[in-house]
Design a protein that fits this description.
Number of domains: 1
Order of helices and strands: HEHHEHEHHEH
CATH architecture: 3-Layer(aba) Sandwich
CATH topology: Rossmann fold
Distance between the termini: 40 Å
Shape: globular
Helix content: 40-55%
Structural class: alpha/beta
Number of helices: 7
Strand order of the largest sheet: 2-1-3-4
CATH superfamily: SGNH hydrolase
Length: 189
């Protein structure tokens, strides 16, 4: 009987200890797919929006790993061909920044749109959230001297927009005006 009491006491202590210990959630895994504006051409990988995004999320207390899967000169057809291999299992979010190379290299808007949709569909089928960053038009102050590649300030702005969007998506849904919320269940007497 004494052994049973000690075993139960130890089990109860372990339950209390486990409940008091903070749970470490796994990091948020993000992959940024794109071309030279994703790689950070002209500003360096450390100033490219994927690296800045990772730093911003971590500063906000969100343990995130952001992989930069940009390839200089890529077009959306190339991104579509490599997206499955570039996005490892365990990825939570894919940021797709398709860029302007399709149209610059004689592609069509229709093919570009179809490739973006196909990439999003593939990621959704894998249970991965997709954020498409494709402003039209791109603000004039975003560009370096070549009017093609983003400057460091633009990368910082893009990262801030993405960080806010990601942070908001991680918050529990609050009651929204105009949306019926379930009524609380009355307590039984």
């Amino acid at each position: 009987m004494n052994l049973i009491v000690r075993t139960l006491a130890l089990a109860a202590a372990l339950v209390v200890f486990a409940a008091a210990a903070p749970l470490q959630a796994r990091p948020l895994n993000i992959v940024a797919i794109g071309a030279s504006n994703t790689t950070g051409f002209g500003v360096g990988a450390q100033n490219a929006y994927p690296a800045v995004l990772q730093a911003l999320l971590r500063k906000k207390g969100i343990e995130a790993n952001v992989i930069n899967a940009g390839v200089n000169g890529d077009v959306t057809a190339g991104m579509l061909r490599r997206i499955d291999s570039a996005v490892p299992k365990g990825t939570d979010i894919v940021i797709l920044q398709p860029g302007g190379n399709d149209l610059r290299f004689f592609g069509t808007k229709a093919a570009r749109t179809a490739n973006i949709a196909a990439m999003a569909q593939r990621m959704h089928a894998r249970g991965i959230r997709v954020i498409i960053y494709d402003p039209d038009p791109v603000p004039a102050d975003f560009y370096q001297w070549d009017h093609i590649h983003f400057n460091a300030a633009a990368h910082a702005k893009i990262a801030a927009v993405l960080a806010a969007q990601i942070e908001a998506s991680l918050q529990p849904q609050a009651a929204q005006p105009g949306i019926a919320q379930p009524a609380p269940t009355p307590a039984k007497p």
